[in-house]
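Pasting as-is:
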Amino acid sequence: MPGIKLGLLCWNENTQWGPLLETAVRADQLGYDSLWAWDHLYPIVGDPHGPFFEGWLTITAWAMATKRAHVGLMVGANPFRNPALVAKMASTLDQISGGRAYLGIGAAWNEIEARDFGVEFGSGPPERLRWLGEALPVIRGMLRGEEPTAAGNRYHAVHVRNDPLPVQPRLPILVGGGGEKVTLKLVAEYADACNLGGGFETVKRKEAILREHCAAVGRDEREIERTVGVGIGVIRDSHAEAERVFARLNENNRIAHPWEDQPVGTPEEVTEYLTPFVRLGFRHLIAGHPAPYDEETETRLAREVRPRLEALS
């Protein structure tokens, strides 16, 4: 079985900068393969009234403080920025990190923060998806050294140059979201990676639909890296203690209705929870990591659970 990649989605809400930086540096030292932040402006889990660190600046600071882990947004909000500027930002981040950037992007959904910050957000999800469909060819062309021209309803570019190019010959574009008719088709057409979530049965169904879209557009589905959001992991020697820690994380983020069906428990239980995703072919597992960042779980996921998953026959 190919090696297992581990990612950590460090919630950049309801925290201070020091702990947010420290947990990323620790993950890098533990051998995590990827570090992710949200691209939002308000807390998106629990009460929206609280501190939130801007995503692009967060991952750029992580890039400077780490040595091996890739960094990216899970995922960038396309309406927030011009796509040509996003390609330029991602290329710069790749140079800063020495070739460790992902460009995560999606259509975006949080109308409240967009309204409050004065971001044009379109008439609804269908229009934002059309905007994303216009943005992706510009972004991909610039990352590959082309000079794309676009004259769509939303975005315009004229032989736009990108110099310097990314360090990576093919800086991966990760399109986030699981919309079955449009988003997964955009993954098939333009993405180097996808991110699915929502539990195993949901991931299994959307994986099958993604394969259908790839066949329809003539794309080799093996070219697309599969990443999966597995929820909030908490690992302790007993299930009861893991549940108590999980409850404290919910309290800190003022979550009224804690998430269900999460990888919470002993190392053996968490391994059992993650095994179906690995069997399905997902080798890049990304765990949610809310503040206050749980060092024990961060460590045990890397040192105890990953070897168990890699030992599966």
